[in-house]
Amino acid sequence: MIEPTFEVAEYGRWAVMRVTGEIDMATAPRLRQHVQTVTARNLAGLVLDLDRVDFIDSTGLGVMVGAAKRMRMIDGGFRIVCSQKHLNDLFRLTRLNEVFDLYESLEEALTSVEGVTVDGAGNPKEAST
Amino acid sequence: MSEDFEIEIPPTFEHLAMVRSVLSSALEAEPVLKEERLQDLRLAVSEATTNAIEAHNRNGTQAAVGIRITVADTKVTVRVTDQGGGFDPSKLKKHPPVTDPERLEYERGLGVTLMRRLTDGCTITPTKNGTTVTLVVHR
């Protein structure tokens, strides 16, 4: 088992959660808990970065559906970063690609976010005022 | 010619990763499937095992869940057998289309769909005490 990690960084009123490892029925509750904690804040948007996820099952997809719902309820943005072919195939297979805003890179996902800039290495930072 | 690998796991979700790992190892020695199809099968088997463990938990049984992997020249077959009391797949609750805003009310319910779409064959057979799910992926 590749234990998952959940690293959250906030840029203004947007949060980026980088998820790594394997998300299945054993570990999805931890993802759900982290998503709930983050979405309980007064966010304008949440970006879920799945580029370093090794495995995800339907339970993990369900947590994302829940996250999309929570962000929709507060009129917030919800974006997913995923460049892995297998995971993108999974989104297409379940038609969740029609529900989620999917991006190939974090840089792309944060392009239009007010108050955030992304440096040459793809690392976001709050724009200086 | 075919080769069988059989494992039994306690009905806890912490064992899902082990099942996926055993499947990968069983197919590693003599790769029958391309990496992409192996990933499909890993996910389908994980979904079937998740359902089996859930059925045991619902039924309050501590009996083991059985996973049998048969590797043949042209296909891989995985049978996941539980003793969770069984269920009727035709009575699975139908969710609204995924694009319907109401679909966001349902966080579960994609497992059987994935098993069916990711494999070349998925059969759900009631047994005396539970269910056997047979998943087949061709080379």
Which features does this protein show?
heterodimer; A: 129 residues; alpha/beta; Transcription Regulator spoIIAA; five-stranded mixed beta sheet; two-stranded antiparallel ribbon; 4 helices; 33% strand; B: 139 residues; alpha+beta; Heat Shock Protein 90; five-stranded antiparallel beta sheet; 3 helices; 5 strands; 33% helix; 27% strand; globular
Could you give the topology of this structure?
The complex is a heterodimer of chains A (129) and B (139).
Chain A: E1 5-11, E2 14-23, H1 28-39, E3 45-56, H2 58-73, E4 77-81, H3 85-93, E5 101-103, H4 106-110, E6 116-118, E7 124-126
Parallel strand pairs in A: 2-3, 3-4, 4-5
Antiparallel strand pairs in A: 1-2, 6-7
Helix pairs in contact in A: 1-2
Chain B: E1 2-9, H1 16-28, H2 35-59, E2 65-72, E3 75-82, H3 111-118, E4 121-126, E5 131-138
Antiparallel strand pairs in B: 1-2, 2-3, 3-5, 4-5
Strand order of the largest sheet of chain A: 1-2-3-4-5
Strand neighbour order, sheet with most strands of chain B: 1-2-3-5-4
Please give the CATH class of chain A.
Alpha Beta
Mean pLDDT of chain B comes to 89
Series of H and E elements of chain A: EEHEHEHEHEE
Q: What gap, in angstroms, lies between the N and C termini of chain A?
A: 44 Å
Cα end-to-end separation of chain B:
14 Å
The largest contact between protein chains, plus residue counts on each side, is: A-B, 27 and 33 residues
Structural class of chain B: alpha+beta
CATH architecture of chain A: 2-Layer Sandwich
Indicate the CATH architecture of chain B: 2-Layer Sandwich
CATH C-level category of chain B = Alpha Beta
Instruction: Tell me the helix content of chain A.
Output: 25-40%
Q: Radius of gyration of chain B, Cα only, in angstroms?
A: 15 Å
- Please name the fourth-level CATH homologous superfamily of chain B: Histidine kinase-like ATPase, C-terminal domain
> How big a fraction of the residues of chain A is strand?
25-35%
Radius of gyration of chain A: 14 Å
Could you list the spans of chain A in which at least 5 consecutive residues all have pLDDT below 50?
Answer: none
Share in helix of chain B: 25-40%
CATH topology of chain A: Transcription Regulator spoIIAA
